[in-house]
Amino acid sequence: MSGTAAAFPLIEAGGLRSRYGGRASPEVLRGIDLALKPGEVLGLVGPNGSGKSSLLKCVAGLRPLSGGSLLLDGRALAGYARQELARTIAYVPQHTGPSMSLRVLDMVLLGRLPHRGRSSPQQDEAIALAAIERLALEPLALRHFSDLSGGERQRVLLARALAQQGRLLLLDEPTSDLDLRHQLATLQTVRDLSRQRGAGAVIAIHDLALAARFCDRLLMLQAGRLLDAGTPNEVLTPANVQALFGVGARIGSDGGLPYVIPVEASSTESVSS
Questions:
Q1: Could you give the residue range(s) of every CATH 3.40.50.300 domain in the chain?
Q2: How deeply is 246 buried, as exposed, middle or buried, from its count of CB atoms within 10 A (0-12, 13-18, 19+)?
Q3: Residue 168 pairs with which residues in a beta bridge?
Q4: What pTM does this model have?
């Protein structure tokens, strides 16, 4: 793959573990290994409660580890100052949280806060406007965030992450509230940015078809453990879909990309086209 060569991975985790609470609480992540190269898009797939969101929060530095190692650009994540981490990692949560009365433009400008003192207000506004334009949010720029639909808010939060200009994008179900056109446009934007900037992206995603189309590799998570990892063609198999979701599936192929057809639980045969 072009543009992915580097002295070390952008993110590298070994034996990653995390608990819900204290030392006596159950583990939500149980020995996860992953590596992400610059220019690469990594998809996290699995049922609800499999640990996708928790893994993203660990990589973002928002959830403490109970074991394992986590390196960002070859350095321990714990060794980064908060401001430096904020300039490197842009995290978009699954839920927008409480409604805010800020205008869309001002919400996107929040992504420039980690760069305060390093760029001028004029530069920050130009970068924010470019992110708004990239996600076709110009008609909403002066509207209040609290007045937007769920899908519109998702796109605004992604624009804020783009304005942050981090080398690592962490996206938790970024297309869950979007219509089909905006799903495709959003994931295409993420993939293009990863390629163009030499950045990396980790996306928690339920839609296996979108995951196969836009992700270079997939991590399959099950109850906090890694079930399988590899390219979409390698891991989207009837056996893995059965193990992960408890349903049988046929796996088709379209232009070299796999797609999953759920079928009766007793049927796990594969078809190709």
A1: 11-235
A2: exposed
A3: 89, 200
A4: 0.91
Per mean pLDDT, which range of 66-80, 120-134, 230-244, 258-272 is the poorest? 258-272
How many CA within 13 A on the CB side of residue 94?
A: 14
Structure tokens at 217: 């590799």
Q: How many helices (H) and strands (E) does the chain have?
A: 9, 12
Q: How far apart are CA 253 and CA 84, in angstroms?
A: 43
- Distances, alpha carbon 231 to alpha carbons 178, 216, 218, 228, 254, in Å: 25, 6, 6, 10, 15
| Strand, coil or helix: 258 | strand
Q: Render pLDDT for 101-143 as a digit per residue (tens, 0 to 9).
A: 899 999 999 999 999 999 999 999 999 999 999 999 999 999 9
Query: CA nearest 118: which of 78, 160, 86, 95?
Result: 86
**Which residue in this structure is represented by tokens 């980064």?**
80
pLDDT for residue 94: 84
E strand or H helix that includes residue 68:
strand 67-72
* DSSP letter for each residue of 97-120: -S---SBHHHHHHGGGGGGBTTB-
- Bridging pattern class, strands 200-204 and 41-45: parallel
Q: Taking all residues of the chain, what is their mean pLDDT, rounded to a whole number?
A: 91
Residue 178 burial (CB count, 10 A): 20
The domain 11-235: what is its CATH number? 3.40.50.300
Query: How far is 11 from 103, CA to CA, in rounded Å?
Result: 34
* Pairing of the two strands 67-72 and 75-76: antiparallel
